């Protein structure tokens, strides 16, 4: 018989390296990979209730949930059907079933039958009688992946209820929630195999998730889900499954759970390119863009260019097109200083050259420099670091005016100075800090925080 992977041993390997700083390797297919060190202290991007519900409601409008959500999720992520134990084949990066579970020959064990009854009673108590999470579409009892999906539902009950509220005007809100749950769970199963590897839609989702939660939190989600799998496989009662789910819920946290659910909703029935095009439009995308550059060295706007993501105990390796690499990461290649600002593929020596090439920003919009085009910045960083397609974006005129007013104001809560304007304070900072602040300013002005 083919060897089986040992989950407890893998957990020792993974958690044993938890204190080490994990590098990000950016493989563009041109020369040696760029080795990028993520900034420490990243936390999940904040997603408030209203923004989250509005986002998933809008995303769901383009989705037609499948009658067989587990099968649809497997097809989306190219996961083979499996039962019981499984093998991970490194060469083809596939999860391969090792055959039907042994218990099928003699009928379901009594513990599985009782757990299934408890699940159906739980569905009834939540006013959704029957097989409310579609866990029994492929078998008579809650086993295998169904246990993990149920644990996830118990872990994120509040987030699922928020989605139910967002989907209330759909023909079948429960079908949509179930589709999201199975998409979420099936993606996590990809993370549970040794040396997690994702491609296509899963790769774009992985990179996007890291942008929203950071490398360290993403790592804790992998390890946490492996522990959930182990606990769910051991569980003989509904309460034990609930306990496993609630423990994972604490590991994940509300903001990461919302980001996960939002991305899973966007992924349903989508392609890698389609998902990648939606991510920059999601709530708090400006903050996620900052984190994408600080945690992975890639531009969130080009996340669709991510081809594969592989995770080991030492590094996250991302294969992507060269244009997706952020300037901060390019500055670390070949031993160059991180402060160097190399010329990007579309950069100009002046703002007038940029406008001549690209024309107006659009009706009701104006071009905005994330890192301002002040004389001091032009002297320090060079004009091409300012006048390029990564640094100049279109903004609504009203929002552009408000951001400019913020920069001209004295704000002690931001600068800790009663005399300096925000612009004067910011002019002393590095390019990276100015860019992070610029993206955050756009987001906070939009939300009326500043």
UniProtKB/TrEMBL annotation:
The keyword Signal applies. Residues 1-20 form the signal peptide. Keywords: Signal. This is Lipoprotein.
